[in-house]
Amino acid sequence: xxxxxxxxxxxxxxxxxxxxxxxxxxxxxxxxxxxxxxxxxxxxxxxxxxxxxxxxxxxxxxxxxxxxxxxxxxxxxxxxxxxxxxxxxxxxxxxxxxxxxxxxxxxxxxxxxxxxxxxxxxxxxxxxxxxxxxxxxxxxxxxxxxxxxxxxxxxxxxxxxxxxxxxxxxxxxxxxxxxxxxxxxxxxxxxxxxxxxxxxxxxxxxxxxxxxxxxxxxxxxxxxxxxxxxxxxxxxxxxxxxxxxxxxxxxxxxxxxxxxxxxxxxxxxxxxxxxxxxxxxxxxxxxxxxxxxxxxxxxxxxxxxxxxxxxxxxxxxxxxxxxxxxxxxxxxxxxxxxxxxxxxxxxxxxxxxxxxxxxxxxxxxxxxxxxxxxxxxxxxxxxxxxxxxxxxxxxxxxxxxxxxxxxxxxxxxxxxxxxxxxxxxxxxxxxxxxxxxxxxxxxxxxxxxxxxxxxxxxxxxxxxxxxxxxxxxxxxxxxxxxxxxxxxxxxxxxxxxxxxxxxxxxxxxxxxxx
Length: 514
What we know:
Blueprint: H1 3-6, H2 8-13, E1 17-20, H3 24-65, H4 73-85, H5 92-119, H6 125-208, H7 211-243, H8 245-254, H9 259-270, H10 272-277, H11 282-297, H12 305-339, H13 342-399, E2 403-406, H14 457-466, H15 471-486, H16 495-503
Parallel strand pairs: 1-2
Helix pairs in contact: 3-4, 3-6, 4-5, 5-6, 6-13, 7-12, 8-11, 11-12, 14-15
């Protein structure tokens, strides 16, 4: 016969019990203790009988060893057995521990007793007879313990499995609540980050609105234009000398350049800005003139001498102009750089960096919050609901008690009126608080207070723009909307509500000032 049928009659007579999940652990312990109280009592009765027999054995051993009792191995062995038998039975595990411990310690006591008999000169026959009688009785009590254990072990195992299910449910509920706290902390952190972001943006706008910064931005634009032209000149000169690299190399051998002129020639290719900064153009003009002459005289052979000569002549003509312009640009750049407000510029750049960091932190916080609300929470809620059903079914089958678990004092209706109850909602946008939402029977009217009906701030702004509401009405409705969103947990807000709460009220008087 199944356990279900065994307790069927009892179930019908027992009224449904409704308890909080937080009380499930103590409730389960009480039920198990009630179920096994008689077993504990039988075990403790056997223990007391064994304790009396061991006391008789101990008195006899003390009589045998006399003054040696303090240091005798025989006394030590019987003391250990006596300590074990003095432990009160308060749980099924105590009965198992008592049986196994007695079997081991009595075996050890027998070994010590036999060794003592072999090594003593006393006549042990009368003592041995007495001890064997008590020994035999203790063996009988140990067998009684084994029978008691074997009779109830399967029942105890079933109850323990039921308790383990309850403990696992408690662990999952704790995990769920920690997740809700984490989500709420993320929401608070997100609000703080948004305030920080808004603060940085306000400071940036203040800096940008100053005359000093406006002047600095204009100067930076002028500097950029001048620097671009200077880079362009550097590129023209570098590319011009690079195109003449091969004939210049041949000229170096033919003209036997001095080290000073060779370094100067190399600088126009590898260190062009430094070469252009020099005010004396004569040496490089001499090199270009000699190069042109050597090509025309045929002392330097190249594939296209006419084109190369034209390039040399062009470079000779343009180089002084380019050098002069380069030096003029450098002087102008240095003057403008001294006029730039470096403090405002540094503050602006520093705030922009911090603003970027705040925005990245907001992005990460929103992503983590979204993962929890859309993935982790629904999964955990589903697991808890499944485990609640499993625990209720297990309690019903093991104790014959129709049990209804609840998250808080708002106990759900019984199965008859609400067979499809759900302890935790599975949707991502649902509340993560531990408040229960009972489903009232259809014949009962709900008297719970309704949440205030508020419109999104975007809709209110549109009504104000169209003249459907005036300024006073707008401020009143906006305040109601803001208070409504502010008083909700972050975990209860939908994505659109979260975005509205963070960004929708900026610029309004009700929005916090930073």
